[in-house]
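STRUCTURE:
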């Protein structure tokens, strides 16, 4: 397929303008994986295609559930056709269970503490500052997003979490937490955007942290070797295959 001019490039993807429709864009996933604000970087051959496969299944499920996303179709392997967006530079994290960085940030919290409804937190996308957490007041006063958008991102974030939590629970997998991003389309609509793939969540089969399926395996490595990278890629393949079952979840 033909791409228009390159619009942006990140650690794991390249975004091109669509060659026909200025309201659309094409996302091409790289085989890159990173952690620690980009301090650790490696390449997993085939990861880009697996990430696109997973994301297409996830966004397809969300679209079917009536949640507004940027996803349109998968015109080729490893690519997503999406609605072109002005991205809001926030990571929106929904937590069902306390683990990871939350335990370090919140004294007195315990592993597995449950949040009902899911706890929603906002982090500014800024690797140099280690993605600092932001309050609604800071988001609004620093003009990152409006107060309405903060409220809407919270509502949509919980809706996204609920749909995906149910889809994973049907396969006896616990969705522990989830990171998503939002963008404004060319006609000003707030939508779930960017990627939702195996870099975006924590997944514990039957609630067992030791059996995790997600990128945390890579983050936890004391030293990266080929055996470890092969294990990570195996988990990405497994998750991509499991998300194929999402297609029937709402039928």
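SEQUENCE:
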């Amino acid at each position: 397929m033909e791409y228009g001019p390159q619009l942006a490039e990140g650690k794991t993807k390249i975004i091109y303008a669509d060659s026909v429709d200025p309201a659309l864009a094409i996302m091409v996933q790289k085989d890159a994986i990173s952690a620690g604000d980009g301090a650790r970087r490696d390449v997993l051959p085939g990861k880009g295609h697996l990430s696109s496969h997973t994301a297409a299944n996830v966004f397809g499920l969300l679209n079917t559930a009536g949640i507004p996303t940027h996803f349109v179709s998968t015109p080729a392997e490893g690519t997503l056709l999406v609605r072109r967006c002005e991205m809001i530079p926030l990571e929106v994290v929904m937590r069902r269970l306390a683990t990871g960085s939350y335990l370090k940030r919140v004294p007195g919290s315990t592993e597995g503490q449950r949040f009902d409804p899911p706890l929603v937190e906002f982090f500014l996308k800024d690797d140099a500052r280690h993605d600092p957490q932001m309050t609604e007041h800071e988001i609004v006063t620093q003009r990152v997003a409006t107060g309405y958008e903060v409220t809407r991102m919270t509502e949509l974030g919980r809706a996204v979490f609920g749909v995906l939590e149910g889809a994973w629970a049907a396969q006896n997998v616990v969705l522990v937490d989830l990171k998503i991003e939002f963008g404004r389309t060319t006609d000003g609509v707030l939508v779930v955007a960017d990627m939702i793939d195996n870099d975006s969540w924590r997944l514990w089969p039957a609630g067992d942290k030791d059996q995790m399926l997600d990128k945390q395996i890579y983050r936890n490595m004391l030293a990266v070797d080929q055996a470890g990278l092969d294990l990570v890629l195996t988990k990405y393949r497994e998750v991509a295959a499991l998300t194929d079952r999402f297609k029937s979840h709402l039928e």
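REMARK: The mean pLDDT is 94.
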